[in-house]
Write a structure and sequence with these properties.
26% of the residues lie in helices and 27% in strands. It contains three helices and 15 strands. The strands form three sheets. Strands 2-3-4-10-9-12-13-7 form an eight-stranded mixed sheet, with no helix packed on it. A hairpin with a 5-residue loop joins strand 14 and strand 15.
């Protein structure tokens, strides 16, 4: 009897595992309005910076009404070696003053975002338009672009998602150039290296070198010694002064030692200033003596 109960429990658990592994695809249409273009529901859907009717400064009218569908997920990164996440499209271009509706679809069982920074803050309080989904689903948001030619970064702001490939660029008008490291569009700033070579650690600790030329114009590289004469003098001075300082600071607390060191430094600086003034005075007096009489 116990064996049958255990077997039944195992079968029930095995049947229920896919239900835990795969989340239901949600169409986020019932969002709560929190003001300032901020909408949210209890199922992980969010829009920030929604603007459906207010024209940006410089736009006399809506130049065009467009609608796109953007997919986000791991499978879209397969065509970009070295990445883990991506959008299905990496580049967009629209006319200035366009009203754009984005249907954002998350195809993964994790959280993804479609975020656009650099928008005018007088109209978009956070300076951005932001859409977010936790798990598979779809959400739709609208914004109106400003009139200037500019290239905007679009990306997922979840930790490491952008660095792992989930980013693109959106050009308004002619744009303001291409952004670096956009998968499939522009070259990586730091190119991945999949070779087996390991950089030599010794190169990082190579002593500095002086480049000179001989009389024939040939370049000579003279490597400076790791231990210079100044270093030796400093070590010798430290060894000589150590016993004296130990006696001077004996019995003092940490605060008293720090105060004593600052006082010694002040005295040393004062002495150097006096010496410089005396030398300057001597040089001035010598020049006045050497001047010929008119």
């Amino acid at each position: 009897m116990i064996r049958k109960i255990l077997l039944s429990a195992v079968i029930s658990l095995a049947v229920s595992i896919p239900a835990f592994a795969e989340k239901e695809f949600l169409d986020h249409t019932n969002l709560m309005d929190h003001g300032d273009g901020h909408f949210m529901d209890m199922d992980g859907g969010m829009i920030m910076g929604q603007n459906t009717d207010t024209l940006p400064g410089g736009c006399d009218k809506i130049a065009a009404t467009e609608e796109i569908t953007v997919h986000a997920g791991h499978k879209y990164s397969e065509k970009f070696p070295g990445t883990m996440f991506a959008f299905d499209t990496q580049e967009y271009q629209f006319k200035p003053c366009t009203k754009l509706t984005i249907n954002f679809v998350n195809d993964d069982n994790i959280r993804h975002q479609w975020m656009m920074h650099g928008l005018p803050k007088y109209l978009y309080p956070k300076g951005m338009f932001h859409m977010e989904l936790t798990g598979p689903g779809k959400i739709s948001g609208t914004l109106i672009f400003p009139p200037n030619d500019k290239t905007y970064l679009i990306h997922c702001d979840i930790s490491q998602h952008m660095e792992k490939g989930m980013k693109g660029q959106l050009k308004i008008g002619k744009g303001s150039g291409d952004l670096p490291s956009i998968p499939g569009v522009t070259a990586q700033v730091i190119q991945d290296d999949y070779s087996n070579s390991i950089p030599e650690v010794a190169a990082a600790v190579t002593p500095p070198a002086t480049i000179k030329k001989d009389k024939d114009g040939n370049v000579i590289v003279e490597k400076e010694p790791i231990i210079s004469g100044v270093t030796i003098i400093g070590l010798a001075a430290g060894l000589l002064l150590a016993p004296l300082l130990a006696r001077k600071f004996k019995g003092m607390g940490a605060g008293e030692i720090v105060s004593a060191i600052f006082e010694m430094l002040a005295q040393g600086i004062g002495l150097i200033v006096k010496m410089v003034k005396k030398l300057t005075g001597l040089v001035s007096s010598k020049k006045s003596i050497d001047l010929p009489d008119k």
